[in-house]
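A quick aside before the break. I want you to see a complete sequence-to-structure record at least once, exactly as it would be stored in a machine-readable document. Don't worry about memorizing anything.
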Amino acid sequence: MSRKHPGRFHIFIPGPTNIPERILNAMHISSEDQRNPEIPDLTIPLYKDVKKVFKSEKGTVFLFPGSGTGAWESAIINTMSPNEKVLIYRFGQFSHLWADMFQRLGLDVQIEDRDWGTGTPPEEVEKTLKADTNHEIKVVCVTQNETATGVTSHVEDVRKVMDACNHPALLFVDGVSSIASIDFRMDEWGVDCAISGSQKGFMLPSGMAIMCVSEKALEAHKNAQLKRCYYSWEDQIATNKDGYFPYTPQIPMLRALQESCNIIFDEGLENVFKRHHRIAEGVRKAVLEGWNLKLCAQDPYWYSDTVTAIVVPEDKDAKEVISTAFNKYHLSLGAGLTKVAGKVFRIGHLGDLNELQAAAAIQGAEMAMIDSGISVKPGSGVAAASEYWRKSI
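That is the input. The structure line, written in tokens, reads:
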């Protein structure tokens, strides 16, 4: 990236996020022998700490070189057989890509399209599962946080209706942009495969697929017939128990992940969630009360605490806002994707950040909007956010 401006570049996309210095320092190490006898001293405690972030005691953690997309694939191929049925609600770019992966891997995918700006509707999941008297649906999918639209679905409500129907389907959750930022309860909510990536709430560089799976998912794995190799669980299970991996792991990333867990626990996991909510509320105040603009999320039930998607006036182009922010103000904002391309821009507010950092994103976005011909009052966004933050801390 060219450095046209002095000072720090401001990255406020919903991942990759800012990397704390403690994590950068933890990664700055010489090469290590991945089979040396001290490696289990790192990995075995690390599995336990990652499970704490997922709020799981019974689950099994797998760490793969890759991304959240790799974790998606691992969850599918290790638990399913060709032509088995999947239920997924599509309401944004990432729920769409997840559905597309199921189809490309040879599954029978029941896709239910919903407005972009809403999420997985528990009441409709209940109706569908009640009608599935033969239990043909093997997996129910929930994108906990749809990054493209700033929408959070309520996993706990989906679990309640699954239990009410006494339906045996596995529950898969995409937690790429929610886990370690928004409350997630693996065991309590009966989640069977929860997937995440390193570059969001874990505050790491991209490059690690992080997942936690239930005992029920491990049982399904025993009979799963989809072909698998690199992302197989059996190879990991055989070596992870002793603290090692079936192939060369990314040791610097493992050390960074341990420091990430340390940072999270130093703050306190519940405090991490509260901080994300507080900062997100301030951003929403800026949009709704300061700028008098609309959110892509259609109702407070769907509001995301990790990313806010802001709808620009119909006669304006969000792409111009994003370009101006980048080129003039040294600020990266998230772009609108596919259906909402040019209609929204996104402010990511997750990971290592505080109120003053978020205020910089609000101010930069505001200046870029004014430069792009969008009528907002100068200073109104930060004023609305700061009044909320002052009173809420």
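Two observations worth writing down. The domain at 268-392 is CATH 3.90.1150.10 (Aspartate Aminotransferase, domain 1). The mean pLDDT is 97. We'll return to this after the break.
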